[in-house]
Amino acid sequence: MAALGWLTPRRRSATARSVLAGEASAEAARKNQEASASAPAGEAEEPEFPVLGDDKAAAFFDLDNTVMQGAAIFHFGRGLYKRKFFETRDLARFAWQQAWFRLAGVEDPEHMQDARDSALSIVKGHRVAELETIGEEIYDEYMAERIWPGTRALAQAHLDAGQKVWLVTAAPVEIAGVIARRLGLTGALGTVAESVDGVYTGKLVGEPLHGPAKAEAVRALAAAEGLDLSRCAAYSDSHNDIPMLSLVGHPYAINPDTKLRKHAREMDWRLRDYRTGRKAAKVGIPAAAGVGAVAGGTAAAIALSRRRR
User: Fold this and answer.
1) Which one of the listed residues 54, 64, 197, 237 is annotated catalytic?
2) Known catalytic membership, residue 64
3) Residue 127: pLDDT above 80?
4) What does the alpha-carbon distance between residue 254 and residue 244 come to, in Å, rounded to a whole number?
5) Out of 55, 62, 108, 237, which one is annotated catalytic?
6) Does 197 qualify as catalytic in the annotation?
7) 100-115 pLDDT, tens per residue?
């Protein structure tokens, strides 16, 4: 049966990492200078975050529209169609779902459930190893160019601080694992499809990892890893993930839908919207993952893309 795998971070090019570190450092210095000049005498500066060397802290990232534009399951379906796993009428349904998701920018339970049911019926009878291999190819074809550089830089800030970073997503755990590995993250929590002797049965183990289920997965992983959730961070675009965001001491709304944006402002959570380039509202994001890190992340993404070519 498919299970959570612990994934080894992939080495990044020295040039890309240098750009990321340099841009982040320069922006942090500029922001600190501005803060010192504008802050009233005696006002305490915001503590540095992520905290370097804090082994009781970790970061949890939602995938769809947080780390990546669009929904992983739809991109996966597109790749399976290319490999003749299903017919044109099914592709039309995937295309409509993806178009709706991109325009609305939020997760609709009915659309997502339809997509999952379609995917389960499509992979039934196929081997897990086969889908994992295909997932690597689909990542390169449809997903790599859709990673948000700003969110990628946030994840890198946690990795550079010595913290573990997990994706937490309703996407199939095999696909989530591929994406986590390709981004150099620690691993992934995802929806587990039932398999017998390495072959998919077309059923799920439990339910999709969505909403409250994500919070339970994070809680269980934190207990197993000996983490202090009050020192951990979580990132998401969707109000469906408020249970997961509420678990941690450092919740972030990334590309938030309307409901999450409203809730985040009420709770004084940090916000960042990479879709429009708007600045963080109310509370800034950490200096180590600020505008400089976004610029560095963009440069790193370009460098890595050129290297792949």
Assistant:
1) 64
2) yes
3) yes
4) 14
5) 62
6) no
7) 444 454 555 555 555 5
